[in-house]
Amino acid sequence: MASVTLRPVSxxxxxxxxxxxxxxxxxxxxxxxxDGTHAVELSPVRAEALRLKLLHEESFWCSRQAxxxxxxxxxxxxxxxxxxxxxxxxxxxxxxGDSARAARSYEHLHYQRALLAWLEAQGLSATTExxxxxxxxxxxxxxxxxxxxxxxxxxSPLGINEWRRRDExxxxxxxxxxxxxxxGAETAAAAEQADRDHALHIRAGAGAGTAIEIGVVTNLxxxxxxxxxxxxxxxxxxTPHLEQALADLAAAREESAARAAEEAADEARREASxxxxxxxxxxxxxxxxxxxxxxxxASSDENDRYGTLPWWGEIHPELASWAPEQGWAWTDGxxxxxxxxxxxxxxxxxRLYTSGPISMLLLPDETVGAEVVAALERAGFLRLYExxxxxxxxxx
Length: 396
Ligand SMILES: [Zn+2]
Prior knowledge:
This protein is of the alpha+beta class. The chain has three domains: 21-97, no CATH class; 107-240; 293-395, no CATH class. The protein is 36% helix and 20% strand. It has helices at residues 46-55, 99-121, 160-173, 186-196, 242-291, 309-315, 336-352, 369-378; strands at 28-30, 39-41, 60-61, 72-76, 84-87, 127-132, 138-144, 149-154, 176-181, 199-204, 212-217, 222-226, 231-232, 237-238, 355-357, 382-387, 390-395. The N and C termini lie far apart (132 Å). The structure holds zinc ion (ZN). Residues 62, 68-69, 71, 87, 91, 93, 95-96 line the site of zinc ion. Residues 257-296 are annotated as: Disordered. This is Competence protein CoiA nuclease-like domain-containing protein. InterPro entries: CoiA_nuc. Residues 105-183 form the Competence protein CoiA nuclease-like domain.
C-alpha cells in the first residue's frame, strides 16, 4: 500500500458530526461487494476520506443488504465540498435520492456485522432476519441456536403492547430473549425497563471507529460498555455493568423501604407522645376542676380512669372499711352497681366536701348517679337546691 503524507487541513464545517450533503450525496457504503455488510461512514474531514479511499483501493458499493442497488460508488473528496459517495450517472437506486434512509439502513448493517463478529469471537454462530419498521428502519433478529437465544435489535419505534406481544412470541420459541434498543425505540425500552427493572440499549460508539456500545439503563443509572467487553452467557446477555446496576437498584429499594419503615415508626412514636400529652392535659384539667370542688360528668377518653369507682378506691383505700353514721340500710333498694356507687358518693358528701354541683356526684363510669343522689337525700346525707341555673347539693 502506498504511504501518504497527510497535510494539515483547515476545517470550516458547522457541525462536523452531521455534515450537510446535497441530494444524491451519500455518507455510507460497503467495502465488501454488492451484497456486502461491511459498512463504512465517510468522515467529513477530507484527509480522513482520502485515507479511506486509499485503504479500500477505491472499491465501494451501494449494498443490496441496505436496500440499495448493488452498484459501485465513487468516493469524491475534492478540496471544497464535504466528502461524499455518489452513484455512477444513470443509476436507478432508492437510496440515491434519500440519504437519511440510507443512513438508517447502514446503521442497521453496521450493528448486524458487529454483532455477528462479536458472537463469532465467542465461538457462536448465528443467523439473522430483518424486519422493516414503520419508519423504514430495519430491525434485526439474531438467532443463536446453540444457546436458544435471540437478540432483537430494535431500531424503529415500537409501542408498548406490540413490544409485549413480540416479547411473548419470542419467549415461546427460545429460552432467552435480549432486546437491544436503539435511540428510536425509547417506548419499547421504557416498557421493558418497567417490567424487568432494566433495559439494554445499543448505539454506535463515539468517533469514526466501528465500536458499538451496549448500555445498561435502570431508574438510577445509565452505563455503557463496548460490545467487545460484553458476553452472551448461557443465561443472559452479560455486560460488565449489569450486575452492579441491578445490585445498586436493589440496595436503593431496600434503603428506601427501611427509610419508610423508620419514618412510620417515628410517626407512631410522635402520635403516642401526642396522645399521652393530651391525656395528661385532660387529667390536669380534671384535677383542677376537682380541686375547685367538682367532679366532671364523664370522660371522653376511655383510657382515662379519673373519677371512676376503681380510681376512688385507689386514692382513698380507707373507703373499703369506711361506713357512714347512717349505716348501709339506705342502699338496700339500689342495684348492685348503685350500692357500689353509693359507698363512694356517701364518702364524698360526708367526709370530703360540704357542697358543690350535682355533677360532681355523677361518677363517670356509672349510669345510676341520679338514683344514688335521690337515696342520699332520703337518707339525710344532703339537701338539693338550685342556684343560678345549676343544681347543687350541700351536706346536712
Ligand atoms: Zn444504489
